[in-house]
């Protein structure tokens, strides 16, 4: 992979080159913020911490970036099912 030498004169050309090299052609800069917001939510960071790190001043802006993926929904349902099963098992012990 060729390294960029000297100043970047055209941000979008440099961005396209970087995305192509990373195997993510068609990505836009805000994809990084969306991905970061999603990872912070999954990691359980406090929303106020995530917002500060991403530079979001309001929760509504943060929520635009913290997109819920289908896999997040599936994981949430699995966790709830596990909690329900654990509660039922605990009730049966009593």
Tell me what the structure shows.
This protein is an all-alpha fold and 94 residues long. It is 70% helix and 0% strand. It is built from 5 helices and no strands. Helix 2 packs antiparallel against helix 3. The mean pLDDT is 87.
Strand tally: 0
Described by strand count, sense and barrel closure, the largest sheet is:
none
* Shape field: elongated
Distance between the first and last residues' Cα: 63 Å
Percentage of residues in helical conformation: over 70%
Task: Calculate the mean pLDDT score and round it.
Answer: 87
Q: Give the SSE string.
A: HHHHH
- Structural class comes to mainly alpha
Secondary structure tally, helices: 5
> What oligomeric assembly is this protein in?
single chain
- Low-pLDDT stretches are none
Q: Could you name the key traits of this structure?
A:
94 residues, 70% helix
How is the topology of this model organized?
Layout: H1 11-22, H2 29-43, H3 47-54, H4 59-65, H5 70-93
Compact overview of the structure:
This protein is an all-alpha fold and 94 residues long. Helix content is 70%, strand content 0%.
């Amino acid at each position: 992979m060729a390294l960029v030498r000297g100043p970047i004169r055209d941000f979008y050309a440099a961005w396209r080159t970087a995305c192509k090299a990373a195997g993510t052609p068609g990505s836009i800069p805000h994809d990084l913020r969306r991905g970061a917001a999603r990872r912070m939510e999954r990691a359980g960071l406090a929303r106020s911490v995530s917002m500060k790190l991403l530079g979001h001043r309001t929760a509504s802006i943060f929520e635009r970036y913290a997109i819920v993926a289908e896999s997040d929904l599936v994981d949430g349902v699995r966790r709830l099912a596990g909690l329900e099963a654990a509660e039922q098992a605990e009730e049966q012990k009593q």
